Amino acid sequence: MNCNKSLWLYVHKKDEQLIDDATQAIFTQGTNVGQLAQVYFPDGKMAVLEDYPGYQSAKRTLEFIEQGVETIYEATFIYDDTLVAIDLLQKENGRWHLYEVKSTNDTKPEHIKDVAVQYYVAVGTGLDLADASVMHFDRDYVRHGDIDVQKLFKHGSVLKHILPLQENIGNDLKNLKEMLKAGEPIVEMGTQCKSPYSCDFAEYCRKLRPPVESEEASTLSNDPEIQVQKIRSFVSRLKYPLCHLDFETLQPGVPMFNESSPYQQIAFQYSVHIQAEKGGPTTHCEYLAESNPDIDPRIGLIRQMIEDTKTAATILTYNQGFEGSIIRQMKINFPMYAQQLQSILDRMDDLMIPFRSKHYKTESMEGRWSIKIVLPTLCPELSYNDLDIGDGMAARNAFVELYHCSDPETIAKTRENLLKYCGLDTWAMVKVLEVLEGV
């Protein structure tokens, strides 16, 4: 429904499918969350067999229903040449209720469409469905001790939203099946390639595109347009000693540590470059937590961060909203450090401001202002391209993988790569500030 071509490629050119590490991590998390949700409705029967999504799973589902089983996991139904697997099928007061489990903090529009198709197929087979709900994390849940599954999840009916969609689903399926009989559809790349999910065939489609965009980008000028007084006003408010601070975070859906909630940003690493005076030498401090699931990475990080930043008159970040929100959450979760953390917040400023406000811009930035865009423009001698870990998502995934890794060599290499990446973030800030100070 999101993209005809994606479906066509899945059926006819599945070998072109490319699932990147980030997407695979999302799939894995979704599977784990689905298994955890089964604890919410215990004592059920699993319908899916090893050949899933084969016809035997649907046959087994019908057998469970005939046997009087009242909780079925991955209940599978086939109707109108369409197969669906319902995460949780629960019999309540003599009628069936559908629960679709999502590893999110709320119900999203794409979830409604997902459940609508499941409802269409299940009811089409003759199942008496009383209701359909989306089950997701409760964003207000805070972990204390073992995970309380009954509090971790919440669910709400979406029946009133999916019923109006039913009359169109049959036509949609008919059109999709007709499309599959024809040749490869021509679909321009667009928002559907990334929203609501990244497409597994985006790389295939990208290879088919003429390289016009990159050629145009290469002609864009790096000559800066500078509002000198605005830049100097910003620079003048920065006080020395000054330090540059950058966090890396993980964001587990199921809270890993006490005093954390679903998808809360958990800082596990930081880099700090400190300068005692303008133009003076820098001192580098860094922290990378131990990848031990029994140790909350925030505790050691908070203590060392307080120590490493205590002499700074200005604590400079790149996107103060991000680092600031993490520290404010630390104040809530660890009130014993609230005073010192507030002191850090009081001294923070944002190096992004001159670029977000367009006080310093070039054509090549194309209206963007992330550090990955600004750095090669102002300091072309520095680059993330040669790093094994080159962005925040890769850093997050790499650190999470360490929780499941026992090979000392791999662990050491990954930690080295994490330190290089985070260290470059703050060194980049040092060099960008030097350019601004020279205006």
Describe the structure.
There is one protein chain. The chain is of the alpha/beta class and 439 residues long. It folds into two domains: 19-184 and 194-206, Lambda Exonuclease, Chain A; 225-437, Ribonuclease H-like superfamily/Ribonuclease H (Nucleotidyltransferase, domain 5), CATH 3.30.420.10. The protein has helices spanning 4-12, 21-40, 55-67, 109-124, 149-152, 159-162, 166-181, 202-208, 212-218, 228-236, 297-308, 320-333, 338-346, 353-356, 371-378, 392-402, 408-437; strands at residues 45-46, 71-79, 82-92, 95-101, 129-137, 153-157, 225-226, 242-250, 266-275, 282-288, 314-317, 348-350, 360-361. The strands form three sheets. A six-stranded mixed β-sheet has the order 1-2-3-4-5-6. It has a five-stranded mixed β-sheet with strand order 10-9-8-11-12, with helices on both faces. Helix 12 runs antiparallel to helix 13 (338-346). The longest helix is centred in the C-terminal third of the chain and has 30 residues, at 408-437. It is globular and about 80 Å long.
